[in-house]
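cron nightly-structures :: item 1 of 1
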Amino acid sequence: MKSIMAAVLLLALTSGASLAGTPLIDARQRNQSHRIYNGIASGRLTYPEAQQLVRGQIHVQKLENKAKADGVVTPFERARINVAQSVQGARIFWKKHN
């Protein structure tokens, strides 16, 4: 369980610093990482649920990193990241409330 908490915190800390050109995306990533961490801390998320959610956060972060690789995030890439974040946000909600 400690490894998942460490991964969530690491993801939250590195997502904002590495991609300064997308502040709204970074803020949403941090918020979702905190939601996962709070679910772990409160006991509302089981270990397998937390693992799955952390993998989802990593997937969204990879999409953002790929979009930033060429230096410009296009509107299409932003929309794709937004959809991925929305899906991840819904998964967090459902996992915490099941």
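cron nightly-structures :: done
The helical segments are 2-18, 23-42, 47-68, 75-96.
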